[in-house]
Design brief:
35% of the residues lie in helices and 9% in strands. By secondary structure, the chain is α+β, with helices and mostly antiparallel strands. The chain has a single domain, classed as 3-Layer(aba) Sandwich (MutS, DNA mismatch repair protein, domain I). The chain has a 3-stranded mixed beta sheet. The longest helix has 13 residues. The protein starts with a helix and ends with a helix.
Length: 86
Amino acid sequence: MCIDLKSFYASVKCVARGYDPFQVPLVVAGPTRGDGAITLAISPALKELGIKNRCRIFEIQKQIQYNIAMPRMKKYIEVSTQIYSI
């Protein structure tokens, strides 16, 4: 099994919110840091639109609507531990 860690954080957030990461554009970044915040991860749906991981929020085209989520490292560690235990 292979896990794409560049999308993992965004996929965990999507699933936690009941979203399909392949359908819902989601960015994991600190929204309180403004438009200059670096994205920690983006969902596969945003990758399909040509958005790159580790871009700044202001680099995402204005016409693209997306959800934004705060990073939660403890949650990502919990989920990855569950996956690796399988």
